[in-house]
Amino acid sequence: SELYSYTEEPELSTNRRCFEEDFHAQVQGRRWLELDQAQQKAYVMRLLDGLEVVNRDKRLKVARAILYLAQGVFGDCDNEGDVLHWSRHNSFLLYQLGTFTAFLELLNMEIDNSQACSSALRKPAISLADSTELRVLLSVMYLMVENIRVEQEEDPPEWKTCRETFRMELSFPVHTEEPFALLLFTMVTKFCSGHAPHFPMKKVLLLLWKVLLFTLGGFEALQAMKVRKREELGLPPLPEDSIQVMRSMRAASPPTYSIELMEQQQQKRGHRSRRPLVKQDSLDIYNERDPFKNDEAGVDEEENDDVDNGIEGELDLMERDAIIPAMPAQRPPIERVSFPKGLPWAPKVRQKDIEHFLEASRNKFIGFTLGQDTETLIGLPRPIHESVKTLKQHKYVSISDVQIKNEEELEKCPMSLGEEEVQETPCEILYRAMLYNLPQYMIALLKILLAAAPTSKAKTDSINILADVLPEEMPITVLQSMKLGIDVNRHKEIIVKSISALLLLLLKHFKLNHIYQFEYVSQHLVFANCIPLILKFFNQNIMSYITAKNSISVLDYPHCTVCDLPELTAESLEAGDNNQFCWRNLFSCINLLRILNKLTKWKHSRTMVRITDWLIFWSVQACGCCKIFVSRIIFSTMLWSCSFFNADIDARPWDFQAEECTLRANIEAFNSRRYDKPQDSEFAPVDNCLQSVLGQQLELPEDFHYSYELWLEREVFSQPIRWEELLHYQ
């Protein structure tokens, strides 16, 4: 449903009319659902022939008829399930007959259509009408990708074969020199450069996200690839599946917004409640509370009321009454339920962590260090021995560590180790295709993300991302204005969702494929101010954002195609739907936080920017930020952070610039070694045999024999021979 804007609703009936006019002319007295597969294929082949006509309007009508098929021939269906069923059935049928390839050619034609670009540039305001052809083409391709991508148990064998073939076609370029995802990235950069302001960016970004999800694989496929790669590298298996761990955790209510927190604390300075506090055990896997804890700890909590008053302000009195039911004065003895305690996932200790711990311990107890030696514990007290033993029990060697070590060996011994064998995976092919224009791709995505962020204000020089949502005629009534306002906000939310999802997907896959591919993308995101942009995104009331109701459920596809639409009123639009949360916005927030974590994890130079204290401030009140908060707090300039965490040895302010420069040099060396392979390399073998060199066949230009004598006179005979220069090379 997010593929379509509410302003595109009239086009659904236009697609149906284009299909029925052509279908009834070809097939008399029958419906599409009544045809057998052979008849359906014959009709689709006739439609595909119509795509080759020169007339642009006729070609658009045929494309709309095909879009109606991909949308599930909703005119012949009785409910939403039938629409989705036939949309999936028709998508496989269209792919088997080569529809995607035909639409890809049409898409390339529309991208290169200079007349449409110049017409859009001359217009003062761009609307839906300027991107009609592109929206039809992208919608058909999106529906085919999404329907074929999703696996179902009842899929016949030929559909499974089609799925794998389609994935291979999108991943490995066959007819073109680049993957399909690169074409969509090119559309994004062309739009942001201002050369094609009529491109429907929401559809492009949604299709790009789904193509990456289809070709590279989702998080579950990524986890399987990670397990397989660790086996190939001889590493121990993962202690757990993080996806399954997260699914077993109970959800917790996010804290109140920070401004409200401060107001509540100011109001409670004069009057403080003496009721017991509710403490949530962060180390409890199931996030459960022991009903007997309050009775046992009530006295201690009242004594520590002054210390915990800030925590008390996080819960409103009414909320606390709803959470903690009144316990009866006398109750029968109940068998206590014990819940497992501990971290939700196994702790991971790096080799560097053990080295830092031993370095600090040796400096403290014996006055000197032993470098990277982690085995010699002579002179250290017994508790240090136990600590080192515990650290080694949880030592974790990542795939990235092995890749970095291999890269260092290849740089040191390029001749003896030879060329590296690189697997031609979809991720590797995509990175190689994106490599030279990757900075532009990242900047373009962040520009669109900035324009779609709810905290961004309209500027005259910003890009217009509303070209594919604004109608030709602006609203004239209050109801139309409210509907368009909801549509615009929904449009921005979908753009944020798609960009955050595809960026996170790229980062995770590139990190698994090779750590320096991930670092290259991360550096360009950082250089393009991605970290301040994410922080700016969270500079809002997060609770309001994840509970926003910018949707009209009765207008969502496919509901609007098979159900009678009720009369919309200003009151019904203002009330919104019955959903308590906007899962789209919650999904975006989680993705952006995970991107922020990946960009700053173990990167002290990126954490120690001037916004660190701001990060500490809002991470207290933003939902799901605890992991980032704990891992970043050690780099804060605030004095109180020192009382909670020991300073990391690597967190020296004078090393920040050198750290980033060293990383960049390693990335450039990796890219140069693997992807820049000039023919005149210094490691290329040299032919020292005179007869072999003179016997080589050289291709000379046709007119060479006419100017041969002149060339000899100018380049050979007229040039003095300086024999003394040979002495410099001895």
Protein architecture, described:
57% of the residues lie in helices and 0% in strands. With 730 residues, it is mostly helical. Among the domains are: 351-395, no CATH class; 690-725, no CATH class. Helix 5 runs antiparallel to helix 7. The radius of gyration is 32 Å and the shape is globular. 25% of the residues are buried. The model is unreliable at 272-339 and 634-647 (pLDDT under 50).
Summarize the structure.
By secondary structure, the chain is mainly alpha-helical. The protein is 57% helix and 0% strand. It holds the Pfam family N1221.
Unreliable stretches, pLDDT < 50, 5 or more residues? 272-339, 634-647
What is the tally of beta strands?
Answer: 0
Classify the secondary structure makeup into a structural class: mainly alpha
Please compute the radius of gyration using only Cα atoms. 32 Å
Calculate the terminal CA-CA distance, rounded to whole Å: 75 Å
| Helical residue percent band | 55-70%
Regarding quaternary structure, what we see is single chain
Strand content: under 5%
Looking at the structure, what is the overall shape? Answer: globular
| Biggest sheet details | none
Please state the average pLDDT score: 80
Counting H and I runs of at least 4 residues, what is the number of helices? Answer: 35
Pfam families: DUF3402, N1221
InterPro entries: Far11/STRP (IPR040185), Far11/STRP_C (IPR021819), Far11/STRP_N (IPR012486)
GO cellular component, one term: cytosol
Protein name: STRP2 protein
